[in-house]
Amino acid sequence: MNLDHIKPDAWKIVEDHYYPDRIEAAESLFSLANGAMGQRANFEEHYSGKSFRGSYLAGVYYPDKTKVGWWKNGYPEYFAKVLNAPNWIGIDVICNKEIVDLNTATVHEFRRELDMQNGLLTRKVTLSTLKGVKLTITSERFLALFQEELGCIRYTVALHDQAAEITLAPYIDAHISNNDSNWDDPFWEHKDQFCKDSFAALHTKTNKSAFDVCTYQSVSFFVDGNKSVAFSCEEKPGRVAFVHTKQLAAGQKVMVVKTGGYCSSLQQPQSNQQNHVYDIAVNALKQGFDELLQSQQKQWDEVWRMADITIEGDVKAQQGIRFNIFHLNQTYTGKNPLLNIGPKGFTGEKYGGSTYWDTEAFCFPFYMATKDESVAKNLLNYRYKHLDKAMENASKLGFSDGAALYPMVTMNGEECHNEWEITFEEIHRNAAIAYAVFAYERYTGKSDYLIERGIDVLVGIARFWAQRVSFSTAKNQYVILGVTGPNEYENNVNNNWYTNYAAKWCLNYTASRLDKIKDENPSEHEAILNRLNIHEEEHTQWKHIANNIYLSFDKNRGVYLQQDGFLDKELKDTSAISRDELPINQHWSWDRILRSPYIKQADVLQGFYFFEDHFTKEQLKKNFDFYEPFTVHESSLSPSIHAVLATTLGRVEQAYKFYLQTSRLDLDDYNAEVGEGLHITSMAGTWLSVVEGFGGMRIKDNAIHFSPKLPDAWDSLSFKINFRGAILQLTVDKETSQVSQISGDPVAVFLNGNLVKPSHKPVFS
Amino acid sequence: MNLDHIKPDAWKIVEDHYYPDRIEAAESLFSLANGAMGQRANFEEHYSGKSFRGSYLAGVYYPDKTKVGWWKNGYPEYFAKVLNAPNWIGIDVICNKEIVDLNTATVHEFRRELDMQNGLLTRKVTLSTLKGVKLTITSERFLALFQEELGCIRYTVALHDQAAEITLAPYIDAHISNNDSNWDDPFWEHKDQFCKDSFAALHTKTNKSAFDVCTYQSVSFFVDGNKSVAFSCEEKPGRVAFVHTKQLAAGQKVMVVKTGGYCSSLQQPQSNQQNHVYDIAVNALKQGFDELLQSQQKQWDEVWRMADITIEGDVKAQQGIRFNIFHLNQTYTGKNPLLNIGPKGFTGEKYGGSTYWDTEAFCFPFYMATKDESVAKNLLNYRYKHLDKAMENASKLGFSDGAALYPMVTMNGEECHNEWEITFEEIHRNAAIAYAVFAYERYTGKSDYLIERGIDVLVGIARFWAQRVSFSTAKNQYVILGVTGPNEYENNVNNNWYTNYAAKWCLNYTASRLDKIKDENPSEHEAILNRLNIHEEEHTQWKHIANNIYLSFDKNRGVYLQQDGFLDKELKDTSAISRDELPINQHWSWDRILRSPYIKQADVLQGFYFFEDHFTKEQLKKNFDFYEPFTVHESSLSPSIHAVLATTLGRVEQAYKFYLQTSRLDLDDYNAEVGEGLHITSMAGTWLSVVEGFGGMRIKDNAIHFSPKLPDAWDSLSFKINFRGAILQLTVDKETSQVSQISGDPVAVFLNGNLVKPSHKPVFS
């Protein structure tokens, strides 16, 4: 860990030295994406040092079928792996026949900036080659928010006090490797390539999953600002380069503007891909880099106008929250209902598939509150479209009659993770998917989605729970045996309180929504009963189970038990762990973790977070004080939930500590693993910790509530929320707090428990 | 399943028709081995039909390093896979330029016999080739018990009423495939080959594990009984054939005698392998097939004189028990302390590594009672030699100070299975290893092994348990959290009664042996304390834990609970499972199996089996009647233990049903999987069910006890036991039972509870 690696700055991520040891970390931190494609901040030019090259395409994956151990019935067909796509950013720089390579050069100056306000990555390096030629490279790069297949690079090499022959050779290349491959199996097959004038394309297909991808580039060269057309096309199988060589005098500079990127078969049929990107590339080059950048800035401006959070007096906290908001917006734009939010976004390969419960449990409120309603609805539609596959998945596991079990990890609705304790047992994910339907209803006050689609999802989930419980004669209650809760440091436990409580809630909520629809819209209700083949007894059975589900409670301590037998553990808090054994998941064997009391992330407390209104503060306090001391927060999703709960308990400074852990997890590389990629979904947790934590935002009874509590380190906090068509802004400083309404019709707003009439502000002043 | 596939016969396994659908099953059932090498009963000649070719070398394996899922700390370096070795048995037969292939020929007659009395596999086939030439192939094959590198084949082709050109081309071939390979990775590298006169050798090396193996053959050809020297050597890389072609008249026959086999780097250094097998091959050919077969018969005669069990009146039972005894003797001879008993022996690839707890828990008594004492001692020495590696293994999992955890699956003392619920949690295996030390002591009455070596193993194991327990404040007792018991249909449970009880026993036994040594041999005791660095407090602590370990008991039912929470399950017995869902491990998803009450194999009852004397028959009855109805017996190790316990309860006919299940498991292919290989270790369970079940044999207080109970279907039962240097024979018929002493000094023998003076019989009359 190198805590001063990244310089504090309110709007930028800045590296002001060349840190060869932090290359992979920086490649993650400075990643660019636009929701459809994204890539690590690899250098354009050749780099022979340690580096993790990665460029990723939304929804495109490799299905690994390797079998080890004793295969279990019900395992999915494949284990999905995110794959590194052909390289479109490459630019070879050759100076007097010597390839320019930061790893062998003498680097005099180095500065890299990720301008989050404008979505622009820049790098300026002054170096001397091995042969002693001094030059300055300036690179500017962005992935267009306004055109998902388009990336743009402006790359300049300027000579200092010496003449030299400089070749710039921008290329596209399908010879790439995948860190996540077993035995270096190739993930791609090269099919075809094309080169004409200043445009080149490669056609590749993923092995086994058969996604067609067209990778392209189009280039213009300039010498001292004047267009230079003397370049050639050099082709090898799977690689096309445009080679521009010029003898330059001292002080001269050569530049290439390169547009490039991908078009996958998720976007266009293979036969149309090349024409599609050709038009994009040619138009883009015609506009030129500056004009394209203006469009990019305009789009990011729109994002920030709504999503920005300002924190004064604490530049690291400010930088942290913007970093997180920036990456959330890079990862998911809500435009394509086939896509979702991967835990590492477009910044690394780990964790294979794209969608986890993280989306509904952590990310959903962020997109709901900072985007148009349609974005959150697209997230709901994603699961609705996968309902049939969730039913198939449940049926593979022996459930029937329309029971749905959503996958733990998925690319397209199919389960694609194969560890039984996760795949088969971490079933609480089903509850998070129902909870998002509830969150949408509560937030928007609308029941249209519920009636048209959401109820189908809820009924599938309720049917799953009704079959998944079993009746314990010993307890005379329903139990849920053999699960993994949110705390994945326990596997195959019985009666995980969170799972049981969430199942109870799902059954009740589904039954209550059917009742409500019946009251308000009997004919719609009739239609739903027919469509989903719901009988009266089934409905009654759901309520019966919900009322009789076992919820383990320890009267002495006044706490719910994380699972049966939790109190049999050696209940020593985390201070008993030797510091050099942290994180325990990197130091302890799995059985030791399992039998310890240590908690990876909020589990019982996740239930208190979701169902806050069901419990008193006294109950929260007892459970928080019992469980938090055992919590090692080794999931990136943990500190944020604890930050929200701590503010609820009025413990603002404790919450602030959790906030720092979550907001700068990647920037400060707390878990010494940022080189593998960023923790994208936990970034939404950071947003929750500010908005629901320090901002105290809640939606209750068709009103929005704020109960702000500012940490000592902050002078002020301000953010906007899009609530039922109204845009509200909360501004808090050391003395006062205030809600302004920026646009929309009046809505009910409570500040610190009092109904307030927000002052109106001019729209986007 | 084809229940009349194998013909009943007291001494032979017989197939009297050509069953193309049962080829793979027969390849398993007719397997040959000699403890050092073995192979499936593949045809010598080319066969284009469905077949599973396999030839295996003791101790030679491939280390698979594939990673999937989320890698856990403490996982072993590799997952060992048994590998198919180069083919030495091949003989191409070409008739009028047409390759002879049973799959395309018209088969008129077919008979295959495995003569278990003599360890000889014969096959006689009369067929017409596609071109209409009728011929009879006779093949005889054995793997020499007297020379572990030697296999012998006599192979004859006889023409009927038509002349033809017949080529016999015996070959050795390294181009083989491995069923168990991911993505068809090659397991072998071909290094070199050699051919001179009638001898040929191939030198190969296993990939990654780097075992050198020399595969060889040496041949003599005969036409109508006269030696024929007109043959040539045909070499391709990795393949050497001797080609003998002759125009034969109608009624003539051509024969090849082929000796061959392997020498691995476990037997000889690479540089010496070829010379070593050359001498063996040349000498063998000089002796000729008949003389070699006589030596083989002599050795098997010695095996059977001691190990045979005769059952009169029930030829299928007789065939079943001999089949099992035969394969146990083929699999393990006790000569090489580096080797052990693999669950599939030399008959298939599944289950990777060679040694499981099966050896100590099931096989040990068989070898102890039917072999020289040195054989069982070699099994103990195998674990003693691996003590350091067991300590390393424990230390990887966070245990310290000499705690030893023996691997669940091993080739050479290292753990080589990588599923956490097995590798890390199925720790009861440690108790079985201690139990074998106890069994040896009880059986032989000797403490030499204990003092010299066994105590080291016991102390390592006791230290493991002392660290593996944790103290539950809630229960005010020691608990063992997070284990998998013998019933692998439960994972990561708390307080598995069997594990807790076995741990208690290990701690007590270790402490008591130290006490005993102190009493009887204080200086030896002193030496042990020093050697193992044992302190008084440690010793005290073991007893303290043993006295305070939690053993869950249900007072209402009078049964020990398999694990915490067992009574929360839906306690429906196995009759509630639909027949078409059996075996559940082929039909149910893993989570469904886990939350069901169904038991794969004896678990609580395994404890009653091991520690019979600690419980009353009434207790056994209650526990048997509670657990057996939930038991699906889907481990081959299950019915035998239940057979023993049922006879103890006087339920002879129920025991007989279990006996049939265990003794003919493979012959009648109960689990429809015999094609993958035989269940070798469960064959020892069959022996237990006869000797300890129907024979009622026990060792108690330095005496041997028999309490025979004959099933109705049997007229008589007779077997021999080697007890403390005396060979005793129990003979039971419908009226009487009798123990004779065949050799050795008098020993204390109880028959049906009464001390008897066995009548003497002439030695091996």
Helices and strands in order, then pairings?
The structure is a homodimer of 765-residue chains.
Chain A: E1 12-15, H1 23-29, E2 32-33, E3 37-39, E4 55-57, E5 61-64, E6 79-82, E7 91-95, E8 98-99, E9 106-115, E10 120-128, E11 134-143, E12 151-159, E13 164-173, E14 188-196, E15 199-206, E16 212-223, E17 226-228, E18 231-236, E19 239-248, E20 253-264, H2 270-287, H3 289-307, E21 309-312, H4 315-331, H5 358-370, H6 373-385, H7 387-396, H8 420-423, H9 429-444, H10 448-468, E22 470-472, E23 477-479, H11 497-520, H12 522-532, H13 536-547, E24 553-554, E25 559-560, H14 584-587, H15 590-595, H16 604-610, H17 617-627, H18 638-648, H19 652-663, H20 680-694, E26 698-700, E27 703-706, E28 716-723, E29 726-733, E30 737-743, E31 749-751, E32 754-756, E33 759-760
Parallel strand pairs in A: 27-31, 30-33
Antiparallel strand pairs in A: 1-9, 2-3, 3-4, 5-6, 7-8, 7-13, 9-10, 10-11, 11-12, 12-20, 13-19, 14-15, 15-16, 16-17, 16-20, 18-19, 21-28, 22-23, 24-25, 26-27, 28-29, 29-30, 31-32
